[in-house]
């Protein structure tokens, strides 16, 4: 419903902010890391939003980048993970680290996040890797799946970015500008994410 809200940062607390625009103050729940990234009260800010609707709850959740928003929406799709848990995870792990953990089956990285046990971490990896293979928007090509199996760094970068919702066409365009072979895997993902923000 709302792609983003741009306005003046009016209130800043531990769990949410209020952004005023057009005479309306929007209460937006955010991770602690994102709240800090917004800067001082009085700043003009742009917050990407997710309109969260449940029978007993209608809320706005906010993010400082589209990558955080994509990660949040992916987490919501995992059975047993609600909005509060997803926001808490965003305070502890970056989208690039999260995508890498999913692609590499690194459950140990996910269980370091407070409130995430072994079973939940395993479910996140299982369900999101499955989405990578089955959902049209996140479909990995046979070439990508083969590359991952063969521990091909380029394939792993592509797959990690697909986990975050980018199309193969967008990814290929970004990777043209990165020297994958001489760059560490997570650094390559981070560089690609920066480039994808500008496409």
The proportion of residues in beta strands is 15-25%
Q: Main sheet?
A: 5 strands, mixed, barrel
Strand order of the largest sheet: 1-2-3-5-4
Question: How many domains is the backbone divided into?
Answer: 2
Number of DSSP E strands? 5
* Unreliably modeled segments: 134-141, 147-151
Tell me, rounded to a whole number, the average pLDDT.
Answer: 84
**Strand-pairing-aware structural class:** alpha+beta
Helical segment tally?
10
Helical proportion, percent range: 40-55%
Output the radius of gyration.
17 Å
Outline type = globular
Characteristics:
199 residues; alpha+beta; OB fold (Dihydrolipoamide Acetyltransferase, E2P); five-stranded mixed beta barrel; 10 helices; 48% helix; globular
Describe the protein's architecture and organization.
32% of the residues are buried. It is globular and about 50 Å long. It is built from 10 helices and 5 strands. The chain has 2 domains: 4-63, Beta Barrel (OB fold (Dihydrolipoamide Acetyltransferase, E2P)), CATH 2.40.50.140; 78-199, no CATH class. Helices cover 48% and strands 20% of the residues. The chain is an alpha+beta fold and 199 residues long.
TL;DR?
This protein is of the alpha+beta class and 199 residues long. It has 2 domains: 4-63, OB fold (Dihydrolipoamide Acetyltransferase, E2P) (Beta Barrel); 78-199, no CATH class.
Layout of strands and helices, then pairs:
Blueprint: E1 4-12, E2 16-21, E3 24-29, H1 32-37, E4 44-54, E5 57-63, H2 66-76, H3 83-90, H4 95-103, H5 107-110, H6 118-134, H7 142-149, H8 153-163, H9 168-175, H10 185-198
